[in-house]
Amino acid sequence: MGRSPCCCHDAGVKKGPWTEEEDKALVEHIQKRGGNVGSWRGLPKAAGLNRCGKSCRLRWTNYLRPDIKRGNFSDEEERLIITLHAGLGNKWATIATHLKGRTDNEIKNYWNTHIRKKLLRMGVDPVTHQQLPPDQTNHDVNGAAAALLWAAAAASLGGLDTGALMQAQLLQQLLQAIGSNNSTTGLIANLASANTVLNSSSSFVPNQMNYLQTGYLSNNSNFAEQHVVQQQLTNDTSPGTSSFAAAEPADQLCNTAASYDVAPAGDWSPTQEFGGLLEPMMELPGLCSLEGDSFWKDTSEDSYRL
DNA sequence: AAAGGGATCAACCGCGGTCAA
DNA sequence: CTTGACCGCGGTTGATCCCTT
């Protein structure tokens, strides 16, 4: 598609933080038109602003719009964001439509600066909402055994041949580990642990969003044991198989999330980071991660080509 | 009190989608 | 069908704030 450069590339168009005068000019212009912006491209000239139309739109939608709610996010809002993100992924604009007065940019920032870190501290992958192996929780690398575990899980999930996939994953991760200066001690220990799991993993299936299970949220000293517990938990429920994303009415999730009451008391557990806000999702068996079977299948196929 | 480093968030950038000519 | 214009989105950047040493 042919595409002319944005007006932002014009020489002399102001960038950077907005001044009070500019804000005032933009607000007055839009108010004068009864809130109807019309063409953003033509707006700066009409409003007497030396700004790109895009910049004006951003300033208006993210900051100056009268219905914007500013200030800290409530627990309920956090809860909602996590729930929606679990199903929608980084669809910030879509998520924002379910949080009155919040902008996509604000939610995105809040996710990246607060929620994401909390999830990582809990050992939860903020992308997939699945638990991370403990070693990945604390270290960036040393992931060979973890990769084995997840490869096994993936292969088991899709009924795939685990051999080539895991060899490729292992090779890749070992190369990473060697490339880094990490000690190999933990790596070897985890490989042993992974091997134990793999040897008994014919029905080993990662529970989607299984960090929501109380078993995980309590003290998890051993990753392999943890999955045995989880497998039992999984057997007691009926895991959903459909992808939540666009199909699941988000309002239902909102209602579910909003109806929940506070976290159980007890010894410290990662749940305390959220004051129990994750628990509502336990009531959503249909939720699953973004990466469905096809994701893992593609990963597997890529591995075969290595 | 000053320096350094991490956290935060407003703003920018570039791409994809859509629509009209 | 192609091209160009525009909008909106998600990822990223960088200025500023805040906390620690």
Automatic annotation (TrEMBL):
PROSITE patterns cross-referenced by the UniProt entry: HTH_MYB, MYB_LIKE
Annotated keywords: DNA-binding, Nucleus, Repeat, Transcription, Transcription regulation
GO cellular component, one term: nucleus
Signal peptide coordinates: none
InterPro entries registered for this protein in UniProt: Homeodomain-like_sf, Myb_dom, Myb_TF_plants, SANT/Myb
Pfam families: Myb_DNA-binding
GO molecular function: transcription cis-regulatory region binding
One GO-annotated biological process of the protein: regulation of primary metabolic process
Location in the cell: Nucleus
Major localisation: nucleus
Every Myb-like domain range: 10-64, 65-115
Name recorded for this polypeptide: Uncharacterized protein
Taxonomy of the source species: Eukaryota, Viridiplantae, Streptophyta, Embryophyta, Tracheophyta
UniProt gene name: LOC123049960
